[in-house]
C-alpha cells in the first residue's frame, strides 16, 4: 500500500534529513501537518510533504523508492491474498491488486507498477489484451509482466510468454520461493 | 373236458390259417366260364356269387381287405362295388374246389342247398317285412352256416363222424359238433367272420341263428336280422333243405314267424316259394349234378390259362413299378447324399460314384466349368471308385463339346444324354483322358437352362448303347447333380459374401472403435482443459498457504507434514497436466531418425520402479536399420512408456525380462519396434482396454494409467501403428510399426547412398 500520511521519522528518511529538522519545520509551519487527535504525534500528509520537498528542492526519488510496486491481477481472491501476504512480508514490495482486466488497466495508470503478476485467464479481458495495452502505453514500456496460469504447462506457458511479449511464466500451483525469486530477478533486486 | 378244450384249440388254430374256403366243383363249373368270358358280365357273376357261401365270403373279405369299411359292405352288390374287376377276376379264377368224393361224404351239396334256400327265404322275408334290406338278408342267409361249411370242407373225415352220429339219432347237430371239435359251427363261424373282418351284425347272425330266443341286445342291431335268418333257416329245413339226411323236422315255425311280423301261413308260403325255385334252378346252378371230371378239367385249364395271363400282366405292371421304385429310391438316396455335400468336389465325387454304382456305368466323369470359364473341375470315376480329381485350364482352343464341330449339336441344356465322340480340340481329348473303349455319352449338368458342366460317361460291362431307361436314369441323376452343384456354388458364394461382410464389419468395428476413441479423447480434452483451470487454482492456494506456513514453522515434524501437502498438490497437478497433454498432444516435429539409436535412447530413459526388483531391458537393434521420419523426442518417450509398462509388469510379478527388438520388414520396408516382456500377461478385458486412459490392469500403486494411451497417441501422431498382444501367463508383446521412410527428391541422394 502506498502511504498517504507519514510520521516525522518517515518524512526525515524520505527527505534524507534528521527527524529534528522535520519537527522544527513542522512546528514552525514550514511543513503543514496535524497532530494525531488526543496525542502529540505529528503526522504529515503525502501532498504537503511533496510540496515541502519541491519548495526546498529535495529530489522526490526517495519518496516510495525503497519498495518495488507490484500489481497482482487474478480473479481468485484467495490467491490474490496469498500473493499480497507473501510479497508484503518480503518487505521489498509495494503491492496493489485487481481481480479483473478493467481494474488492472485503471490501476496500471495510477499505480504505475514495476511489475504485473497477471493471470492468463481473467473474467473480462484476456491477458493478451492486457499485455498489448500496457506495451502500447508510453511510460509503461519497462513494466515487466509475469504470466501465471492454471492452464499451461511450462512449455505452452513459455510459448505464450514469447507470443505476448511477457517476461516470465509461472504455472499454478507454484513454489512461493520461485515466484519471489522470479520477480526479484526481473526487477534486478 | 380237457380233451375237448384241446380239440377246440386245435380247430381254432387250423382255422386261423384259412383265408378262403373251397367251393363245390359244380359251382366252379358254373362260375369260371362267366369270369373267363371275353366280356364278363358283372350281373351274371354277382348272381353266381349269390348262390354260394364260400364265394360270398371270399368277395366280402376281398372288399374288406381292399379297405372298405366292414359296416358298408353288407351285401354282395356293395362288396362288388369296391372290388375292381381284375381283382375280382383273379380272385374267382383262383378258387379251389372240394374233392368230389369229399363233397359226397359230408353231404356238401345238401348243405349248399340249405344255405341257398335259407338265403332266398331271407331275401323274401326281408322284402315282406321291410325291416332289413333284402340284399343284406340274402348275404346273411348265405353266410349263416359258414362255420359248418368250414368244418365240413376242412375236416371232412371228422365231420363224417358227426353225420354218422346224427344218423344214429341220439344227438343233435350242435351237440355232436361240440363233442367232436370242442366247439360248434355257430361259434366257429363267428370266429371266422370276426377274423375276416365282417361287420358285427353278420358275426351275430352266424353266431346266434340257432338260439331259440335271441337276446334283446342283439335283436335291434341288425333290425331283427338274426331272427329273420333263424326263421329262414327253419323254413328251409322244413321244406326239405336240411343239413343232413337224418334231420328231424324242426319245431313249428309259426311262433318264430309271428315274432318278426309274419303269420304262420305267410311263412309257409315263403317256404314253398323257395322250395320250388330251388328245385327248378339247382341244376343250372351246379348244385345237383356231379360234373364229369373231363368237364371240370377243361374248365380249370381255361381258368389257369386266364390266371396265367392275369399274373403276367400283373407281373409286368409290378416289374415296371419295381424299376420305378428302384429308380426313385436311387434318386432319393442320391438326393440325401448330395444334401450332405458342402463343396463342389464332394458333389462331383458323389455324383460320379453314384452314377457308376447305381447305373452300372463304366466311366463317369462329372465336371463343372468355373463361372469365369477359365477352368473345369471334375472327377473321373471308374468302376465306382474315384480315380482322380482334376482341374484343367481351359485355353482358347479348347472345346467342351465332344463331337465334330458341325453346326447343330450343341450340348443341350436339357440333361438328356447325347452320344459323343472323341474329337480334335475337345478338352478331355487334349488331356488324353481314359473313357474306356465303348460308346460314350455326354449329359449336360444344368439348372434352368444355365449350363454348369456335364457328365461324360460310358456304359458298363460289356460296353453297349444306351437304353431309354438308362438314358432316363442318367438324366434324373444329372438333374439332381445340377441342383446340388448350383447349391454348392451358392454356398461358396455365400461363404465368400459372409467373409466379405465379416471384413467390412471388422473395418467398421475398427473405425467405430477409432471414432469412439477420438470422441473419448475429444471430450477428455475438453474436460482436461476445464479441469486444469478448476483444479490448479485451488491447488495453488493450498500449496501456497502450506508453503507459507512451512516457512514460518520452527518444528521440523510439522514442516514435513506441510511439505507432504505441498507435494501431493503438486502430484494432482501433474496428473491434470499429463491428462491435458494426452488429450492435446503437441504436434510432432519429424526428422530422419536412426531406429537403433532411438531404441537405445528409449531404453536408457526407462526408470526402474522404486522398491521393486530390477528388470533389465535388452535392446536388439541393427545399426543398419533404415531411418524413419518421426519426432524423436515423442517416439522415444512413447517407447519409454511402453518399456516402462513392460518393466512394471515384470516387477509386479517379481521377476522377468524385457526385450526391445528393432526389425526391418522386408515386405514394405517398414520398421518395427517389438517390446516383449515375460510378465504375467493380460486378460482379454484388460487387453481390450490397454490403450484407454486411466485404465490400469494392476491394483493400486500403478502409475496414473496414461502410459500406454499416451504412447499410442504419440505413435499414431507420428504416422505409426501400435498393436498389443497378450495372453495371461505368457507375457505381452507390443509392436510399434512405422512406415518406410520415403525420402523426398532432395533427400533421395542420401537414400540411394544408404541403399
Keywords:
heterodimer, A: 189 residues, alpha/beta, Multidrug-efflux Transporter Regulator, Chain: A, Domain 2, Rossmann fold, 2 domains, 5-stranded parallel sheet, 3-stranded antiparallel sheet, 19% strand, B: 755 residues, alpha+beta, 6-stranded antiparallel sheet, 28 helices, 58% helix, disordered C terminus
Provide structural commentary.
- The complex is a heterodimer of chains A (189) and B (755).
- Chain A is α/β, with parallel strands linked by helices and 189 residues long.
- Chain A folds into 2 domains: 5-62, Multidrug-efflux Transporter Regulator, Chain: A, Domain 2 (Orthogonal Bundle), CATH 1.10.1660; 68-186, Response regulator (Rossmann fold).
- Chain A is built from 8 helices and 8 strands.
- With 755 residues, chain B is of the alpha+beta class.
- In chain B, 58% of the residues lie in helices and 11% in strands.
- Chain B has 28 helices and 13 strands.
- Chain B has a 6-stranded antiparallel beta sheet. In chain B, strands 8-10-11-13-12 form a 5-stranded mixed beta sheet, with helices on one face.
- In chain B, strand 5 (440-447) and strand 6 (450-459) form a beta hairpin.
- The longest helix of chain B has 85 residues, at 468-552.
- Chain A binds chain B through residues 76, 78-79, 82, 85-86, 121, 150-151, 153, 155, 171-177, and chain B through 529, 532-533, 535-537, 539-545, 547-548, 551, 569-570, 573, 577, 580-581, 586.
- Largest beta sheet: strand ordering of chain B: 3-2-1-6-5-4
Content of β-strand of chain B: 5-15%
**Rg over CA atoms of chain B:** 53 Å
Biggest pleated sheet of chain B:
6 strands, antiparallel
Unreliable spans of chain B: 747-755
What is the total tally of β strands of chain B? Answer: 13
End-to-end separation of chain B in angstroms reads: 122 Å
Order of helices and strands of chain A: EHHEEHEHEHEHEHEH
**What is the percent of helical residues of chain A?**
40-55%
Terminal residue distance of chain A = 19 Å
CATH hierarchy: architecture of the largest domain in chain A:
3-Layer(aba) Sandwich
Multimeric organization = heterodimer
The CATH topology label of the largest domain in chain A is: Rossmann fold
* CATH homolog superfamily of the largest domain in chain A: Response regulator
Which protein chains make the most extensive interface, counting residues with beta carbons within 8 Å of the other chain's beta carbons?
A-B, 18 and 23 residues
SS element count, helices of chain B: 28
